[in-house]
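Regression test case RT-17, inverse folding.

Input:
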């Protein structure tokens, strides 16, 4: 497909040619090129790109083809290429890995890399006397086309390769992992990389003809994307993928998956403070699990219903649900379920002021989570253990637990966990008279909670009001102005809603 054939077309409106045709066109373009040419290859999956590059090398054994793979973000493509060019110069340069420089988001066309492509458009031909082939995912090609139209206009060809179903199946198997616990314990960078890979793979599945689409795998991809976005507190994106996965599970008649998705959707509503909607989702899931005789699902649903009762202050109802969930989890040797129920029962005892019992349950939960290498669970248990120490006046012990919890939350990219730890350390510092140290912690916690639209934001706002009263208006207000470059918010001066 040469430049003349694509000049008047939107490359995303045409059908994808077969692989053999595109490979032949690409190799011929490289063979005939005698100077700089800019070629684009749209290919979502890195393993497929590597296979295609190897095939091009096989077809053009007489040409020296250099591959440059950018594993870290770059801002100036031409400069980055020049730094890695071999001597003597190759007959063509293959560039891959530009997706690491661009977020998979609506603002990708405005990323620095894209903006700099337009600015250096004329320098490519002057600097590189050989063809440059950009092997990019579809969304990167879109970003270049939209954000760097001048650079895109000097292209000599655009070639499209869809992944083969067998390659997609193998990649999906490697990405989908072992479920929620596995993705919850990925680092922040690993979560973002997993999201990028899953979104690209999902795009490939959507591009297949109807009779080749694997809706079961698409359901699972959407499910895991929902989990990842939920863990990053991107609730709107999480809900979009959960709902799509739910639609596919209904289409396929997978009732257990439908019930599991109802639980996930319920958790998303609960995280937003929408408790009635969440409770309805949990009850629907419980009814389905009971019809299926799925005891793991029953235990999980009872556990989540208990959390709703607890958040409402109905500790007796919550305890009954937790104890039922715990009994089932123990029968099934579901260690993660046991740990979760022990943790929640500990919270009940804490709410009742029975701190010794609470500490016992938290420590039992922590021991299991450590054996399971459940870092997210460990962080939660450490935080609640810290709270018990703080309530008992053992501030140094409490601070150590909070710090450990905070470090894990940062590693996991758990913004809510980070905010919770900062908030709790801020409370501890306030109680011990360390007001100037408490202020930035409480302010940062509030900002994050507001960004996440967490119901806990009101608690953080009230804690800042309490700090102002204890520290003194003058010192607090000076710190506020220095940190925000604004006058003290009105809600701090009187009983209004929290907003920054």
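Golden output:
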């Amino acid at each position: 497909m040469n430049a003349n054939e694509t000049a008047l077309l939107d490359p995303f409106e045409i059908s994808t040619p077969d692989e053999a045709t595109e490979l032949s066109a690409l190799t011929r373009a490289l063979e005939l090129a005698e100077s700089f040419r800019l070629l684009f290859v749209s290919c979502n999956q890195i393993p497929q790109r590597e296979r295609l590059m190897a095939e091009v090398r096989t077809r053009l054994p007489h040409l020296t083809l250099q591959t440059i793979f950018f594993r870290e973000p770059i801002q100036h493509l031409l400069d980055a290429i020049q730094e890695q060019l071999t001597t003597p110069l190759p007959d063509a340069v293959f560039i891959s890995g530009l997706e690491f420089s661009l977020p998979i988001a609506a603002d990708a066309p405005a990323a620095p890399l894209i903006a700099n492509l337009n600015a250096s458009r004329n320098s490519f031909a002057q600097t590189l006397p050989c063809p440059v082939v950009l092997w990019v995912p579809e969304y990167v090609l879109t970003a270049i086309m939209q954000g760097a139209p001048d650079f895109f206009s000097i292209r000599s060809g655009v070639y499209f390769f869809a992944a083969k179903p067998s390659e997609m199946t193998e990649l999906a198997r490697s990405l989908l992992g072992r479920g929620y616990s596995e993705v919850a314990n990925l680092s922040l960078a690993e979560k973002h990389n997993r999201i990028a890979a899953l979104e690209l793979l999902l795009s490939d599945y959507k591009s297949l003809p109807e009779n080749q689409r694997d809706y079961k795998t698409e359901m699972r991809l959407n499910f895991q994307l929902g989990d990842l976005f939920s863990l990053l507190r991107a609730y709107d994106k999480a809900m979009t993928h959960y709902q799509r996965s739910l639609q596919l599970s209904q289409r396929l008649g997978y009732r257990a998956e439908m019930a599991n998705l109802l639980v996930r959707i319920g958790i998303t509503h609960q995280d937003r403070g929408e408790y009635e909607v969440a409770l309805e989702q949990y009850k629907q899931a419980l009814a389905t699990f009971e019809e299926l005789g799925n005891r793991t699902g029953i235990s999980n649903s009872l556990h989540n219903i208990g959390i709703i009762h607890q958040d409402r202050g109905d500790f007796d109802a919550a305890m009954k649900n937790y104890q039922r969930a715990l009994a089932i989890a123990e029968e099934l040797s579901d260690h993660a379920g046991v740990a979760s129920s022990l943790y929640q029962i500990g919270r009940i005892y804490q709410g009742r002021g029975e701190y010794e019992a609470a500490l016992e349950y938290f420590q039992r939960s922590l021991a299991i989570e450590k054996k399971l290498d459940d870092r997210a669970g460990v962080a939660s248990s450490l935080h609640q253990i810290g709270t018990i120490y703080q309530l008992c006046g053992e501030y140094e012990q409490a601070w150590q637990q909070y710090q450990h919890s905070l470090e894990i939350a940062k590693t996991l990219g758990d913004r809510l966990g980070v905010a919770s730890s900062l908030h709790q350390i801020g409370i501890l510092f306030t109680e011990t008279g360390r007001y100037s140290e408490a202020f930035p912690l409480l302010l940062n916690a509030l900002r994050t909670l507001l960004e996440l639209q967490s119901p806990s934001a009101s608690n953080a706002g009230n804690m800042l009001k309490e700090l102002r009263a204890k520290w003194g208006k003058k010192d607090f207000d000076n710190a506020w102005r220095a940190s925000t470059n604004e006058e003290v918010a009105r809600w701090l001066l009187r009983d209004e809603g929290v907003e920054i």
